[in-house]
Amino acid sequence: MARVLLNSVTKRFGNVIAVNDVDLEVRDKEFVVLVGPSGCGKTTTLRMIAGLEEITKGTISIGDTVVNDIPPKDRDIAMVFQNYALYPHMDVYNNMAFGLKLRKFPKTEIDRRVKEAARMLGIENLLDRKPKQLSGGQRQRVAVGRAVVREPKVFLMDEPLSNLDAKLRVQMRAELSKLHQRLQATIIYVTHDQIEAMTMGDRIVVMRDGIIQQVASPLVIYNHPNNAFVAGFIGSPPMNFINMILTREDDRYFVETIEGRVRLEIPRERVPYFENLDAYVEKEVVFGIRPEDIEDYNVFRVQYGEAVDSMMNSFTAMVDVIEPMGAETYLYLSLDEEIPQLIARVDAGTTAVSGEQHKVAINMNKCQLFDKETEKTLRKEDVRLR
Ligand SMILES: Nc1ncnc2c1ncn2[C@@H]1O[C@H](COP(=O)(O)OP(=O)(O)O)[C@@H](O)[C@H]1O
Ligand SMILES: [Mg+2]
What we know:
Elements: E1 4-13, E2 16-26, E3 31-35, H1 42-50, E4 57-62, E5 65-66, E6 77-80, H2 92-102, H3 107-121, H4 136-148, E7 154-158, H5 166-183, E8 186-191, H6 194-200, E9 203-208, E10 211-216, H7 218-223, H8 228-233, E11 240-249, E12 252-257, E13 263-266, E14 284-289, E15 294-296, H9 297-304, H10 307-311, E16 313-324, E17 328-335, E18 339-347, E19 357-362, E20 368-371
Parallel strand pairs: 3-8, 3-9, 6-7, 7-8
Antiparallel strand pairs: 1-2, 1-4, 4-5, 9-10, 11-12, 11-14, 12-13, 14-20, 15-19, 16-17, 16-19, 17-18
Magnesium ion is lined by residues 42-43.
């Protein structure tokens, strides 16, 4: 059993609280990604699990053992770092074998493990090369191989792909996911890249300023963010946020821009998603909508006919910039001071022209609302989302 459990774990460096009262359970064989901006405490959390950093407060358990006082080498973990730190004078075989030799493993066992890991990672034909004769991606595989031969209970990986170019990163992402399935091991993976988190994690842990913001599966994080920070951090282009006033007319709810030029109805089906909207009526809230939930009105009109007007809320805005991506087009829109910037991800068949007004439709069934002061979501607390 390789469950990893953090109980009220805090790490202080002098006055800096790097990790603040973190509770986290990483399940056996799970691939968990810690994600957040630089300096939010990801590396420190990983290093405490590895035993490379002392814990200021709290306990960490691996399996059923509290490891606070167990040295790194006895924790049955292996760590892969961002700078792979291969030994330059050793060939690939010996780079992978080195740790096992130090631990006095029999030669035949070392040979079996190195060859098996090399096969798994597709580097069997590189075993006699020195690191400088390898490409970045190959070096990264060797660094992972060096961890794999240890056959640890838990793999800890700190931004292992960040030194690779974009194309290789995409490829290695998929390879690490495959490797996880084959190894059946627990992996805790750290990255600042929200796309890596979304694509690789069974669950994602979003951190900010040493504090966990949300722990959930990628789609729950994406569709039901706990707060405006999580909503804005996960997703690209990011979610749009607009300060709006919540209003009510009989049993219908609306959000309106401060000067009232845009008024959008929260559909009846969406209202129950939120907790006690009445407490916010006539108050300012933060309205959130993802770029893909804003469409070119004309495109929808062609697709759905007049039904669009009952399904969708629409308004006209200035098209500041058009970015064709091929499969789709990004529109940068604005509405004077009311809405300084709004990014829409629309059908590539859009007829929008930059510098001209264009009508867009908003899929309000996907709208989010956040408290203006606390930035917390107004959606209902739903245990099934966790
Ligand atoms: N050895 C250290 N001494 C002092 N402060 C540190 C040390 N290591 C990290 N920190 C601070 O702790 C916070 C978290 O750092 P870190 O865990 O490296 O963040 P991340 O990996 O998310 O970028 C930062 O404010 C950083 O400056
Ligand atoms: Mg770091």
